[in-house]
Amino acid sequence: MKRVSASDIKNKKGKEPIVCLTAYTAPIARAIDGGVDLMLVGDSLGMVLYDYENTLQVTLNQMIEHGKSVVNASSKSCVIVDMPFGTYEESPDRAFKNAARVMKETNCNGIKLEGGRLMERTISHLANSSIPVMGHIGLQPQSVLIDGGYKVRGKDKSEWQKYIDDAIAVENAGAFSIVLEGMTEPLATEISQKLKIPTIGIGASPKCDGQILVTEDMLGLTNVAPKFVKKYKELDKSINEAVNQYAIQVKNRTFPSSEHVYHMRPKLVNNNK
Ligand code: KIV
Ligand 1 pocket test: which of 28, 39, 40 has the largest number of ligand atoms within 8 Å of its C-beta? Predict the structure, then answer.
């Protein structure tokens, strides 16, 4: 099976819902490869893996190292790597320099960056320089310090137009798809109907062209998950049970048992004697 490309994702609009999850590490990438259309090496890894307060501390080198491990451990799903805060806002040229590093060093299928109209020139420069770009509007975690924190967008209809304009700007700039995060259901539905590129919702609407969740959230491996997260498993409980069992067996010396230790070569029997 050939790896799904960014243009395959774009072409799914109107045909089939697009299944996306985050992946930051090789074990998760191996487990979900092919089960999802797209894996996002999201900068949410700063909060999920490193326990940072927000995503602003994440560096380009961290994204590149995690991107490499996800690409190396997978062969089927499209892999998109997030551009972290401070690596693309200054100018389209700076964005190209850093995005090209991500593409070269990770061998991923494209990058994602946050921002609507403000990022139009940058997205256009990257897309025209052969870098597939996924947009991200609505709640933008890299702007939480200035932009109303993690509050849901579009609760009043008077707010809608700016998000619609952002979405259209991202599409016109040449993005292959766009994440709609933390906005009311009717606003996300309206944007999804207006755009020709697929919208990927997180805390948005079932009418988006696809959905994304943080894998650790949906597997029950994070302790605080927002309202929009559905826990499909409670892996924290399974891990706890497994660890307790291991501890008991180490203490009562039933682990390691014969099957988990190395044995001597069997003695040869000399039949000539
Ligand atoms: O960083 C991330 O994981 C994201 C998704 C939640 C869309 O941006």
Answer: 40
Phi first, then psi: what are they for 154, rounded to 5°? 85, 20
Query: In the structure encoding, which two tokens stand for residue 66, read together?
Result: 């995690």
Phi, psi of 128 (to 5 degrees): -75, -10
pLDDT over 70 (residue 271): no
Is 16 tagged catalytic?
no
Residue 251 CA to ligand 1 center (angstroms) comes to 42
Among 128, 122, 141, CA closest to 43 = 141
Which of these is catalytic: 114, 181, 190, 216?
181
For residue 273, the model assigns a pLDDT of 53
Instruction: List the CATH code of the domain at 6-233.
Output: 3.20.20.60
Cα 55 to ligand 1 centre (Å): 10
Name the residue with the closest Cα to ligand 1, atom 4.
Answer: 42
Mean pLDDT score, 181-203: 98
How far is Cα of residue 204 from the mean position of the Cα atoms in its chain?
A: 16
Which ligand 1 atom is at minimum distance from the Cα of 114?
Answer: 8
- Examine the pLDDT at 146 and tell me if it is beyond 60: yes
